[in-house]
Amino acid sequence: MKKNLSRLIVLLIIGITFNQCKTNNSYGITVQGNVKNSNQDYVLLSYSPRYRGNPSFEGFKNIGLQITPEGQFKLSTKKITDGAEYALLFKKSHIKLQLFEGDNILLDFDIDKPNETLFASGRGAAKINILNLAQFKREFLSDLNFSLTEYVKYSDSIASLQQEILQSIYEKKPNSDCIKTATNSYKIEKIINENELTQKEYDYVKLVIYVQKLSLSSYIPYLSRLNQPDSAQLDFNGKLFSDFSLQNYKKIINLNSWRLGNGLEKIQKLEYLKHLQNSGEKICPANCNSFLETREFLEWKIDFTKENFNDNVFNMSVAGEQSSAMYSGIDYKEIYEYFGNIITQAKYLNWVNNFKSLLDSGLNNTNYNLASEELTLDKRKFEQLVTNNSDKPILFVFWSARHAGASVIENLPALNDFEKSYGNEINVIKICLDNAEHKNLWAARIIENSWKGNHYFMPFEDNDSSLKAFTTKNISSHCTGGVNYALRKSDGSIINNVDSPLRLLNGDTDEYLKEFVR
User: CA 50, 54, 58: angle at the middle one, nearest 5?
Assistant: First the structure.
């Protein structure tokens, strides 16, 4: 148990969380687009939760379609996480969206420079336009070189300007100084003139502004680069850390947005360091992270969150960490015993129990028959599989259940549509490459997403030479691998690292296939 919890802690610390109050609303959302230079690209509405594996406790599945020759698209879904982060993905670009229940949004943009040209209209559009303003973008912490005092002053100035702009939009005051002096004043004035900023949107953006200030917690380790007095000694009870207060924490009433989840993590880290400091521990920028890589921190933050946040925040934070662990291939039974006993809300407990059931018995699901020995490949079986499908070119989807679950699942709508459009010309074969012990995770991810098709599992063990012609050596790398697409042409030659179906499906697909496959 201790070993598995240690693995969980390390995974959470290095960022397996990349990453929800009301559920299953009766309104859903609709996102439409008028797109310049679309070239009939494929557009995908993707859920962007904070946690590894992209768990949706509301049951949302990514949806997608090809943009029409006229440059239009319309995507709708009934299952939405209110206030969560979503993204529209295209061949070479993306647009971030913050969606509420009932949003009905029209997006106008140029696909070659979407964020520079984007303007949203309709119900729920104002928050998207505001958060897309240059004033609401933040630099990477590693690019900054401030002392602690300078960083707080810098962060406060940004938050102050953001709040002024938000207030001016809310009160419809285009002549405010913060707008008149802005280089993008025309964009802000357009939001005032053409959007209605609801109270709910206003409150959301205001909360985002506050949560961004909590990045101070993440900046502390960078202070070790500086040789300044206030960067060497930290007083977590001092004025510089005044944003970290129990009263302020009450503003976070759910973790539907990954921004709020990030905010909670920053709070947990700083409050734990404060707790240690108040207990006599010497904390400095150079050693602070070492205290956050322990089982003690994991256990402490669970108690702290339960005591200082509402039930929904507590339950989602615990369920999110458990889902990350289960998707990572950690011994889920022990993790389940540890986390499952403290989840109380039905939505999260049902998700955890359902996924645990898939891990326990998914291989025996008769609708998929994934336990069949024919689907577990060695070198001989793989070569026979290629021979049996060599009547057509083959698109191979190599993926790791642990390291590319979300990457593959994210592309499912495009992959399914690719098979529908070109299945008569190309055989599509999906092969999961992972350790044999994770075969149950392979089955669980397939069944969870109703992913039909030609699925195979190739264990790493005893298969070192089975895929020499393919570029798959980093398939199990969390940072640099995870999924690889390859084409085997009719003449037997291999094209490695081809584009994903999301990138393949556009107005040039026929020409691409004519050149490389047909």
Answer: 95
